[in-house]
Amino acid sequence: MRPDDLTGIVPLHEAFPSDTEIAGLSSDSRAIRPGMLFFALAGAKADGASFAADAASRGAIAVVAAKGRRNGALSVPVIEVDDPRRALALAAARFYGAQPQTMVAVTGTSGKTSVAAFTRQIWEHAGFAAASIGTTGVVAPGRNDYGSLTTPDPVALHKLLAELAGEGVSHAAMEASSHGLDQHRLDGVRLAAAAFTNLGRDHMDYHPTVEDYHAAKLRLFRDLLPQGAPAVIFADDPWSQATIDAARAAGNHVLTVGRKGDFLKLNRVEHERAKQRAEIVHDGGIYEIDLPLAGDFQIANALVSAGLAISTGTSAPAAMAALEKLKGAPGRLDLVGATAAGAPVYVDYAHKPDALENVLASVRPFTTGRVIVVFGCGGDRDRGKRPIMGEIATRLADVTIVTDDNPRTEVPAEIRAAIMAAAPGAIEIGDRRKAIREAVAMLRAGDTLIVAGKGHEEGQTVGAETLPFSDHDEVRMALKEVAQ
Ligand SMILES: CC(=O)N[C@H]1[C@@H](OP(=O)(O)OP(=O)(O)OC[C@H]2O[C@@H](n3ccc(=O)[nH]c3=O)[C@H](O)[C@@H]2O)O[C@H](CO)[C@@H](O)[C@@H]1O[C@H](C)C(=O)N[C@@H](C)C(=O)N[C@H](CCC(=O)O)C(=O)O
Ligand SMILES: Nc1ncnc2c1ncn2[C@@H]1O[C@H](COP(=O)(O)OP(=O)(O)OP(=O)(O)O)[C@@H](O)[C@H]1O
Ligand SMILES: N[C@H](CCC[C@H](N)C(=O)O)C(=O)O
Ligand SMILES: [Mg+2]
């Protein structure tokens, strides 16, 4: 890449001859190699400007920094921009260039991973080479990479998009987390459509108010989705109308889905244990769909996904037929097994109040015995949700077992105590393995067990260390033990 390629993003041409080769971009000084551009970002923990000298010593040709953020004298030019995070994302999009032709992004407190996975599956059924990118990683033809961030950082993201395009992927669905939107990680992605699922309490350690959290999500519609492009919005959430209004004001083509939806209208749902039958109206046609997934919320996710696929060119009959073949995203109301008496055990990623409420309410209709839940709350994350989740669990489950979920650097017993304070009658078992075993051993015919909070995760983070741990494996082992 040459300086002129960054015109309008970073005024590099003012400091360098036009034939200067830019070898790469990074916001991490430790990743800088000779010839690269270093972007100094003010972060949550550190100020990138204080690593400018380190970047220069590793061969950065220039430092891109916010206006007025110069930090002492440097051996390389400092190029000032209004917003270095946005500049990094836009520069990364130019540097890597190619993206799958049809890109969509979904935001919302819950359902993003599921919608990204479902949209990919609908496209696959319709015959496209499709990918999904999010919390559980990247899935594409010939790829299933474990992920760490829900929305990757812009350099990693644009590198990935170029690779996917190079591998022939024409369609990709990605998750837009509020952190990702707020930190401009997806600026520069050329979106064909975007979607909103719902808004609940989450990340109150990062966003000062729920309005600020909603505003971060709205960036997807206000700043990133091109004017006139489809905005698929789930219509039945308390935050739907505010989102619809904002998307309309931004000039998006709003398409609503759900019971109150116009584009895809849900008329009727009948629940069975592992599936549900839905009647959906689209464009005057009525579709009877057997969705092979448990949980009310999966209907919402399926509608949003079908909305994304149809609004970007998949035919409605093909999208509706694909809904009958959907597989749940790993760890989302994931049926791991059942006891000899038939009591099912689900692993679910509910780690925030609304998600826990939804998952517990979802299994109630087909549970003739008790709903038993095992869950905890992560350390170094929103403390306010702990009593809220304790209250929800004891209100909606018959037996609540409070355990550990990634205590990180906090004292596990204190996290549990904050949950227990609002969970009268709950049983406290810190050791998650033991908690799962006790819960499985308790199961009688008609009961349902939900092991919530970790979903697809493969580790338990205690202090700075992540020890191998899988709810799936623990449930399987516990089921084997009780069978003996
Ligand atoms: C709080 C947060 O979101 N942090 C993200 C953010 O880091 P930051 O900019 O605040 O970084 P920082 O540590 O303060 O450092 C500031 C700058 O100095 C640089 N630095 C630092 C050290 C050094 O030696 N040299 C150097 O240049 C850093 O690279 C950085 O650019 O930008 C980084 C690059 O994009 C992210 O990796 C990082 O995610 C951290 C690891 C994280 O845990 N994020 C979570 C909370 C997150 O983003 N979660 C969301 C939502 C999850 C969900 O609910 O689905 C997600 O999208 O995953
Ligand atoms: N549409 C929905 N409404 C309410 N709850 C949902 C919905 N979809 C999923 N959930 C609940 O939220 C959990 C996480 O779902 P999913 O991973 O699809 O969401 P997400 O938005 O990607 O979450 P995260 O931000 O944690 O990655 C599920 O395990 C389920 O308990
Ligand atoms: N992306 C979320 C996942 C939380 C999962 C839960 N198991 C926890 O550790 O709190 C976060 O890092 O906050
Ligand atoms: Mg997710």
TrEMBL record:
Protein's UniProt name: UDP-N-acetylmuramoyl-L-alanyl-D-glutamate--2,6-diaminopimelate ligase
Record EC number: 6.3.2.13
Catalytic activity: UDP-N-acetyl-alpha-D-muramoyl-L-alanyl-D-glutamate + meso-2,6-diaminopimelate + ATP = UDP-N-acetyl-alpha-D-muramoyl-L-alanyl-gamma-D-glutamyl-meso-2,6-diaminopimelate + ADP + phosphate + H(+)
Residues annotated as domain Mur ligase central: 106-308
GO molecular function annotation: ATP binding; magnesium ion binding; UDP-N-acetylmuramoylalanyl-D-glutamate-2,6-diaminopimelate ligase activity
Gene3D superfamilies hit by this protein: Mur ligase, C-terminal domain (3.90.190.20), Mur-like, catalytic domain (3.40.1190.10), MurE/MurF, N-terminal domain (3.40.1390.10)
Organism listed in the record: Aquamicrobium lusatiense
Residues annotated as signal peptide: none
Motif Meso-diaminopimelate recognition motif, chain ranges: 405-408
GO cellular component: cytoplasm
Primary location class: cytoplasm
Mur ligase C-terminal domain span: 331-455
Every Mur ligase N-terminal catalytic domain range: 21-96
GO biological process, one term: regulation of cell shape
Leading EC class: ligase
Keywords of this entry: ATP-binding, Cell cycle, Cell division, Cell shape, Cell wall biogenesis/degradation, Cytoplasm, Ligase, Magnesium, Nucleotide-binding, Peptidoglycan synthesis
